[in-house]
Specification:
A hairpin with a 2-residue loop joins strand 1 and strand 2. The chain is 35% helix and 23% strand. The chain starts with a strand and ends in a 10-residue tail after the last helix. The strands form two sheets. An eight-stranded mixed sheet has the order 6-7-8-3-9-10-12-11, with helices on both faces. By secondary structure, it is α/β, with parallel strands linked by helices. The protein is built from 13 helices and twelve strands. The relative contact order is 0.13. The structure holds iron/sulfur cluster. The site of iron/sulfur cluster has 13 residues, from loops. Iron/sulfur cluster binds next to loops.
């Protein structure tokens, strides 16, 4: 096993509100090794973005608190760091790419100045040196005429260009870990593909580790070395991209795979949807948190919560019937419309 860069261990978090603590994460554990791309997938509201904001400790600014667990970056627990320490880590060692590039860029500064400022802050470069490096980085992320573009403001650029600038800003200090939260969701399809290609290229050139957050299994297939599937604040399945796609063990993973347009398991032309919606952590169902939506649910599922257990080397699933689900998925080409409990 390569050296782990980030180890999130049994992370339980919440937000302090006027009516008490609202739970957000319920025992998340993820490991990212050097140079690895780990995709965190799941529907909106599953806790993916909260996980990333907890790693960056940005959730602190919205009343976020860690109730239990550790976030180890090179073995050092980020939970115990002060915000002053975190400011030194953010941008230089761990960088973040957000979904909306326009929100990540400051409208009153040129893009060149914004990239240069990151270098001056974290690397102590002179103004001239930082400006030169900023232009070089704009060239690296595929921006034509970078000397001219560096002098432009974000509103003078397209969404795709702005996301390239955000990527340049995130990578310019050569961070060891980049957290990319739905980096292509706000872009149109052709630009999405270009941005994913760019991220992959830069990742292999700079040997950066990436935690990529996406609701799109197609994006995960293209980018990930490993996939962690998240549901209602916890991880329900984890494995390599090949394992997850060739033999999913959790009915929720199967539902996500079936929802990919054109996925081989789909029947007919109608796009599959997972019935029902994700529960809030304040109102979790008894037993397995996925049982109200699971075609496989039994009385045992409704009464007892399954733990995330090893089902092979580096492979984990939280389902009482993981093996049977995997076999049935294989027989049916991943689609399970009715199962044990029906
Ligand atoms: S434990 Fe039961 S309800 Fe939960 S995912 Fe597995 S089969 Fe479905």
């Amino acid at each position: 096993m390569a050296e782990p860069i980030l180890e999130i261990r049994n992370l339980k978090t919440g937000f302090v509100t006027e009516s008490g603590i609202v739970k957000a994460l319920d025992g998340v554990s993820i490991t990212i090794e050097k140079g690895q791309v780990v995709c965190l997938v799941g529907e909106s509201g599953s806790g993916k973005s909260v996980t990333s904001l907890n790693v960056m400790r940005l959730s602190d600014y919205d009343g976020g608190i860690v109730l239990e667990g550790e976030i180890l970056f090179h073995g050092e627990d980020l939970v115990k760091k002060s915000q002053e320490d975190m400011r030194k880590i953010r941008g230089s060692k761990i960088a973040m790419i957000f979904q909306e590039p326009m929100n990540a860029l400051n409208p009153v500064f040129t893009v060149g100045d914004q990239i240069a400022e990151t270098l001056r802050l974290h690397k102590g470069m002179s103004k001239e040196e930082a400006q030169r490096k900023a232009v070089e980085m704009l060239r690296k992320v595929g921006i034509p005429e970078p000397e001219i573009r560096a002098k432009q403001y974000p509103h003078e650029m397209s969404g795709g260009m702005c996301q390239r600038v955000v990527i340049a800003m995130a990578l310019v200090c050569r961070p060891e870990l980049v957290i990319a939260d739905e980096p292509t969701t706000a872009l149109d399809v052709t630009v999405q593909a270009q941005i994913l290609d760019l991220l992959r290229e830069l990742q292999s050139e700079l040997h950066t580790s990436i935690l990529l957050i996406t609701h799109d299994m197609g994006v995960a297939a293209e980018m990930a070395d490993r996939i962690a599937v998240m549901y209602a604040g916890t991880i329900v399945e984890e494995g390599t991209v090949e394992e997850i796609f060739s033999q999913p063990h959790h009915p929720y993973t199967i539902g996500l795979l079936n929802s990919i347009p054109g996925f081989e398991g789909q029947r007919g032309t109608e796009l599959y949807t997972i019935k029902g919606s994700i529960p809030s952590l304040a109102n979790l169902p008894t037993g397995c948190r996925f049982h109200p939506r699971c075609p496989f649910a039994t009385d045992k599922c409704r009464a007892e919560e399954p733990s995330l257990l090893e089902i092979g080397s580096g492979r984990r699933a939280a389902c009482w019937y993981a093996e049977e689900v995997a076999l049935k998925a294989k027989e049916q080409g991943a689609v399970i419309v009715s199962g044990k409990g029906e």
